[in-house]
Amino acid sequence: MNKPSLFALLMLSMPVCAESNLMLGAGGGDGADSYHAGLEWRQAWRSLGSGHLWYGVGINGSYWESDDDDLMQLSLIPMLHYRFEHYSVEHHRFEHNGGWTPFLLAGVGPAWISQTRLGSRDLSSRFQFSSRVGVGVAVAHHSLALEGWHLSNGGIKEPNDGISSWNIIYRYDF
């Protein structure tokens, strides 16, 4: 089996064996406001330093508006989460101090947008890359994160104005 097929199989099997969450958020930047909703799945991968590394995938829709212009975005984002927790073999669960679990996350993946312009920005193609990095804290089934998101066609077509935003993201783990 080639590497792309193995990666696709891994991503498609994620919802069956992983933790899932609902993601809602909003933010703004580069003269635009953005609103986000999606589903994410993640699976514990390995202990690393003082925490645990998780891999996952998110499917989300976003609405961006600037001046009298707007666009819709659909994304599929493979992600890595680093949670400052450790796995207790004795108790068969992840443990953390005081109920608060800080985390870091990063991801990049393909996106589709409904139009190629947003205000004065020319994104040139409907195919884009959506990338994000964030820092947050989880308590029980809830988490809150500050995330930087960037949307760009990666230089596939010029001009490549791209757009970035800072977002507050809430997640509820099922």
From TrEMBL:
InterPro entries in alphabetical order: Lipid-A_deacylase-rel (IPR018550), OMP/PagP_B-barrel (IPR011250)
Pfam families documented for this protein: PagL
Signal sequence interval, chain numbering: 1-18
Coiled-coil region: none
Annotated keywords: Signal
Keyword NADP attached: no
Keyword Cell inner membrane: no
Name used for this protein in its record: Lipid A 3-O-deacylase
